[in-house]
Specification:
This protein has 5 helices and 13 strands. It is of the alpha+beta class. The chain has a single domain, classed as outer membrane lipoprotein receptor (LolB), chain A, CATH 2.50.20. It has a 13-stranded mixed beta sheet. The longest helix has 12 residues.
């Protein structure tokens, strides 16, 4: 697995997070996992698009502690199985570092504005995993992941408390499982959205993300998912 491809997948999968502080955790009760997945099926049918502010955190604890924090905005649009993602990073570790990250039709592109470099990756093989969290139905989750129910938990979306169901996911695809041995999501079944996700990469590394100012089903033009470059842009593969 090339490092660049792993980065792209990490960002796109991780961009299904909404902001919130964990609180009021409850142990698993008698709620049936099948019922949770059924609720996601119903909510996913009404999902079309979303936009939000996003924070994407990467943490390493071994051999020494290191944390990278990127902040910006994200747009996501889905029509059937087809979807588009556009992330506009503004800062990295509190300093300006504009980046544009898009995905559409199996192709991921990362434009680093300060370096004027455009990186391109084909992620067709992993497309079904990129749906995680934004409008993913229970059927889609169960098709790609082994799922364990960990109980309900209340997260804060700004000032609004939201009850979520916490699910532990293990990918059925061995290539994805090598990158992420375990994924934990806190999902709002009423909207088919993950409020938080933690990606355990093993060896002391993890990725977490948060959203705020979420808008559900806004009108998003295709231009929101287009990267603007110039004649001097260096194309990287």
């Amino acid at each position: 697995m090339r490092k660049g491809t792993k980065f792209f997948i990490a960002v796109f999968v991780a961009l299904q997070f909404l902001p919130g502080q964990i609180g009021n955790a409850a142990p698993p009760d008698q709620k049936d996992l099948k019922e949770i997945l059924r609720q996601l099926d119903a909510a996913a049918a009404n999902f079309h698009s979303t936009s939000a502010d996003v924070e994407f955190d990467t943490v390493q604890t071994d051999p020494v502690y290191d944390k990278d924090v990127q902040k910006g905005t994200v747009n996501y649009k889905r029509s059937g199985k087809a979807f588009q993602v556009a992330v506009h990073f503004v800062t990295e570790n509190g300093r300006p570092n504009p980046k544009e990250l898009t995905y559409s039709g199996g192709k991921a592109m990362l434009y680093q504005k300060l370096q004027n470099q455009l990186y391109v990756r084909d992620l067709t093989k992993y497309e079904s995993y990129l749906l995680l969290g934004f409008g993913a139905s229970g059927i889609e989750l169960a098709d790609k992941w082994e799922i364990k129910y960990l109980g309900s938990e209340t997260l804060q979306d700004g000032a609004v408390p939201v009850k979520t169901e916490r699910l532990e996911l293990v990918a059925k695809d061995p290539d994805v499982r090598k990158m992420y041995p375990k994924v934990t999501i806190w999902v709002d079944t009423a909207r088919a959205l993950s409020l938080k996700q933690v990606f355990d990469q093993g060896q002391g590394q993890s990725r977490t993300g948060y959203y705020s100012n979420i808008k559900l089903n806004p009108s998003l033009p295709d231009s929101d998912f287009t990267i603007k470059t110039d004649s001097k842009t260096q194309i990287m593969h």
